[in-house]
Specification:
Elements: H1 10-13, E1 15-25, E2 30-42, E3 45-55, E4 61-70, E5 75-78, E6 83-86, E7 92-98, E8 101-108, E9 115-122, E10 127-136
C-alpha cells in the first residue's frame, strides 16, 4: 500500500480490509454492516468482494455480499459490467444517477491506509446516508 504522491492506485487496494458501515435512513433508523472488503487482482483489474453481516434497524442480522469490478483507472463497475463511478485518486466527490434516485459519495484518503467512503442517496425510492470505514486487516 504505497503512497505515490499522485494519489491512490489500484495496487494500493489489493488485499483484505476490515469494513464497518453505518446506514442512517431518512426516518432516523440505523442499520450496520460489519465485515470485510477484499480486492483480488483479476483480468487486468480487480474484483472487490464485500462480505459480512448486515444488522437491520429491527435487530435482524443477515449475511450480505456485494461484488464490484475495479480497473487500473479506478473505474468501478457493477458485477454485470455496468459503469458505477470513478474513484478520485486523491479522494473527493463522485456521483451516480440511478433514476429516479441520485447517489453522491465522498472518498477520504487523508488517514491512509485507513480510509472512508460516505454515500448520500436521495430520491423518491431511497433516502439514506452510508458511512464506511476501511482499515487494513492484519
Amino acid at each position: 500500500m504505497s503512497d505515490t504522491g499522485q494519489g491512490r492506485r489500484l495496487a494500493d487496494f489489493i488485499g483484505s480490509w476490515r469494513l464497518e458501515r453505518q446506514i442512517r435512513h431518512g426516518d432516523g433508523s440505523v442499520a450496520r454492516f460489519d465485515g470485510r472488503a477484499e480486492w483480488r487482482a483479476e483480468g487486468g483489474g480487480a474484483l472487490c468482494l464485500e462480505t459480512g453481516t448486515l444488522t437491520l434497524p429491527d435487530g435482524v442480522a443477515v449475511q450480505a455480499e456485494r461484488r464490484y469490478l475495479w480497473d487500473e483507472a479506478l473505474q468501478v463497475r457493477f458485477q454485470d459490467g455496468r459503469f458505477f463511478h470513478a474513484v478520485p485518486p486523491l479522494g473527493g466527490r463522485v456521483a451516480h444517477d440511478c433514476p429516479p434516485d441520485r447517489y453522491e459519495a465522498t472518498y477520504d484518503f487523508a488517514e491512509w491506509p485507513r480510509w472512508r467512503c460516505t454515500w448520500r442517496v436521495r430520491g423518491p425510492r431511497k433516502d439514506y446516508a452510508m458511512h464506511g470505514l476501511y482499515a487494513p486487516e492484519g
